[in-house]
Amino acid sequence: MTMAAILSHPSSSAVRSPEAAPLSAASSLSGHHFRQALRLSTVPQVSAPAPRRRISCQTLATSSPASVSFNGKANTGLKDFLHISDFDKDTIMKILDRAKEVKALLKSGERTYLPFKGKTMAMIFAKPSMRTRVSFETGFYLLGGHALYLGPDDIQMGKREETRDVARVLCRYNDIIMARVFAHQDILDLAKYASVPVINGLTDYNHPCQIMADALTIIEHVGQLEGTKVVYVGDGNNIVHSWLLLASVVPFHFVCACPKGFEPDEKTVEKARQAGVGKIEITNDPKEAVKGADVVYSDVWASMGQKEEAAYRRQVFRGFQVDEDLMKLAGPKAYFMHCLPAERGVEVTDGVVEAPNSIVFPQAENRMHAQNAIMLHSLGL
């Protein structure tokens, strides 16, 4: 079979309802054919505000949506992507390997691999975002699909219409749903009632797509994820929760250095520690934490929905800025990462962002490649 024949292999474009039959193995490009195509292509290698709101996942004990799903997804081969810890290590690493393969194919200029041809994705944005929208929409388009943007005023999920109703309507029009929302319960409810895969584009509790992109970036630059030391400096937020959940599946050393009172969710920390896979540390001393780090990671001190606390947090977080001196303590081989957008001069200096060992922009690019692989896995392609 020629490469053109392999890459143009037809895939099913039917939208699956709750009563739909399982995906046919012949309806999509197989992993074997994909890798064959890849080999044949040419690839160049102030005053204190109200008390801080704590974010926790009240349903971690039942984090696998299949057990509470009303939609029959478990019988179709379709999979939600809500928490990294819903999957085992082998699955996570296979998704990351697929991300590398698809990235290489796109970088080569290959544009005939179209596994999403005839498929549509609904993108729900309760929280606006440049990277999440552009990376999902562009990635889905480059692989043959069409993405629909639904902004904060288009649905008003939970206000104008109940989340369960939104889920059951959108899944009858679309093959996959991505949502970037505030309340974690919203993403759980979307997955519970939708008959198509639901991808967690971010919640106040976690951000699994970002951390998959981060893992891909670390593998590309450090050479591996297992055994590395990743040190996060800043607020114990949704990014930290996803790092903790990844460390409960893949063995590496994760350290969160944050001010007292801004630690990550205790149940999530305990879940990661009880897994006995990665080494987990929570500390209030960033200078000690970064010593020997492979990666020093930062994020804004006041996330969306916390901007009224920004001035107060700048006072509390003094000493937690990632500057040139902190990077020197980490060592000459340490990379700097940031999920962006960055407030230069606040949680990180301009010099650190622009330094040769900063990999924030390759990290941002990898959002698209990691998410493409996540969507391929979720759709069983």
From TrEMBL:
Pfam families per record: OTCace (PF00185), OTCace_N (PF02729)
Domain of life of the source: Eukaryota
Catalysed reactions listed for this entry: carbamoyl phosphate + L-ornithine = L-citrulline + phosphate + H(+)
Signal peptide: none
Ranges where the Aspartate/ornithine carbamoyltransferase carbamoyl-P binding domain occurs: 79-220
PANTHER family: ORNITHINE CARBAMOYLTRANSFERASE, MITOCHONDRIAL, ORNITHINE TRANSCARBAMYLASE, MITOCHONDRIAL
Protein family according to the UniProt entry: Belongs to the aspartate/ornithine carbamoyltransferase superfamily. OTCase family.
Name this polypeptide is given: ornithine carbamoyltransferase
